[in-house]
Amino acid sequence: MPVPPSDESGRGERAFSTLMAVPAPAGTPPAAEAMLDFVFAQVWQRPGLSRRDRWFVALPCVAAADAEQPLREHVRAALVGGDLTIDEMREAVLHFAVYSGWPKASLFNMIVDEQWDRIHQERGEPVPPAKPLLPLTTPSDPEARLLVGEQAFRDVNCVPYIPVRDNPYSGAGILNFVFGEMWLRPGLGMKERRLITVACVAFQDAPYPILSHVYAALKSRDVSFDEMDELALHFGAYYGWPKASRLMQVIDEQKQRVTAEWA
Amino acid sequence: MPVPPSDESGRGERAFSTLMAVPAPAGTPPAAEAMLDFVFAQVWQRPGLSRRDRWFVALPCVAAADAEQPLREHVRAALVGGDLTIDEMREAVLHFAVYSGWPKASLFNMIVDEQWDRIHQERGEPVPPAKPLLPLTTPSDPEARLLVGEQAFRDVNCVPYIPVRDNPYSGAGILNFVFGEMWLRPGLGMKERRLITVACVAFQDAPYPILSHVYAALKSRDVSFDEMDELALHFGAYYGWPKASRLMQVIDEQKQRVTAEWA
Amino acid sequence: MPVPPSDESGRGERAFSTLMAVPAPAGTPPAAEAMLDFVFAQVWQRPGLSRRDRWFVALPCVAAADAEQPLREHVRAALVGGDLTIDEMREAVLHFAVYSGWPKASLFNMIVDEQWDRIHQERGEPVPPAKPLLPLTTPSDPEARLLVGEQAFRDVNCVPYIPVRDNPYSGAGILNFVFGEMWLRPGLGMKERRLITVACVAFQDAPYPILSHVYAALKSRDVSFDEMDELALHFGAYYGWPKASRLMQVIDEQKQRVTAEWA
């Protein structure tokens, strides 16, 4: 296990300030240093998942935790460091909203705007105009949208079946909007959407979506087995190991299932 | 304050079994009995919020807590007791999904179907066909849908402004779907949607949506001041005091704001 | 910062199996090992907070995370290791239920019963009868109970004021039950109740209860400054560092406040 020794004083602070482009919190108590060291000097530095990919796990976790100051720092660092474009960040907010609830996402959305403005103010540059919403790339006609949603549901979830239409949750919600529109928006690639989704289903910890989304991320080969293991560690560092231990158990089971199906 | 004495043995169990239409859990340890007594023999029996209305607070709380067995019992009891129709229950699942995230809602949705089937099986009756999804009552054309969403945003939130369109979260999400479709669906009345929403923003505890939704519920007179106070108690009993204390504070502030605006 | 080097292979597994009295998960991927190592070989081993005290932080966190298997293992380990008696464990479930909502607590409660039965089955011993609920040690008369609740509110929160009676949340809830009964139950000491409460308000992350409960735990001297720092690390290891970073900020502010009041 390639975990570097952690007895070097100040290593966590240096890793924090390099990634976050701001100084590490001053006067940090010893207990907090141990955590900084683990999260920033160890987890973020690991190979197996790119720095860009790690943001798509970290950002939903920080947003879900209602941690306002860390969220501000994470959003800023991901944009300033050039790992995410503003359009990708905004699309990630929408994806997060769908998987974690709109109220949770409203602060995330505000902070993205606030930090984007601040970055341009500091550079003495005007804020560029936002990408226009219209035209949508998905059909408007309800029947056509449901057909598209049914196909996207099969494709994204790697399953042959579709949920019933005549149910508000699965019809008006899942088919009509979540798969008929949201997943098909061009602003984010499938891998990025997979990473956000797995992070969200892991902290939401509903019993079934975690199974289906880990399965589909592996089965589609959008996320490799090793990347998924790294995702679990990154998630655990941000959202605590009890939820991560459930995620790891699911990953283990779904790897076996996918491997058997591929055989 | 009409709080009955709580030294009467078995009172909580009796209140539980009357409301839930199943026996109270056997062999309940003393500590749990104290809470059953509080929640079922005291909180649920209070005047100030109807039994029907209390379900729209309790159901989202139980669903959000990932408490599978209590969720099963609550869904069944609300349907068997006739307080909610199946169509209202299903619409409540969709509303909950939007405000708490789709993964969280998937178990709720499954349990509603499961209990509805079970109720009919026990009665030896066939399960009636579900209400068809189509036609939707909202416009299909994206531009028209955004216009309708903007008006619904103003009406539901009791504000004169609207959020920007050219942002995936507020454009493709909030205007296009949450207000352009979901809130306008005919399956639930405004009061019921208010109760579910306030419960959800109270446990999601994002800083701003709790302000705006408590304000709008009071300002619209969909929920009276006294009903809102009862909602906070019911919520606290189901989701714990820390989150309820924030809700209480917000209620207090928004009552003052609304009162001042009405003066 | 007394963090031992973590490059020793298998250290996390050994620490896990010693504490938990079961083997560490087999075939653990490298990423999981890093976490096991951090949580079990580093955090649990630190001085500054006793092993017994650490359970009162870890148990609510695992219960709140809906992590069924870890919850099962933690409950069992705390009972088998003799760190908590069954009566303390059950009282902890009640305290957790009040601060996190009772649906969330229902699984915790079930698992305590299940593991307690299993432990006795394995030993071939009968399960001893549970402690009777009645008589309660708090007054039955509503007026007397409110008076007791008001005094307990002042004592527990270390404040001179009390909330209004004639409000469902603060009257029927806070004064009548939370402080008029629950906090006064003899099954747990004040320090233990403080630890559970601070863990719960930290993951619930409502803005004010976290302030008042960290303040009162420090002001009452039930939890020392150094123990509180350790609590933050233990909490962060279990519930993720974004929420822990808010807790650490609050601890820092409340230490200053308490120090100023003591001066």
From TrEMBL, chains A, B, C:
InterPro entries on file: 4CMD/NDH-1_regulator, AhpD-like, CMD-like
Residue ranges of every copy of the Carboxymuconolactone decarboxylase-like domain listed in the record: 29-105, 172-252
Coiled coil: none
PANTHER family for the chain: 4-CARBOXYMUCONOLACTONE DECARBOXYLASE FAMILY PROTEIN, CARBOXYMUCONOLACTONE DECARBOXYLASE-LIKE DOMAIN-CONTAINING PROTEIN
Name assigned to this protein: Carboxymuconolactone decarboxylase family protein
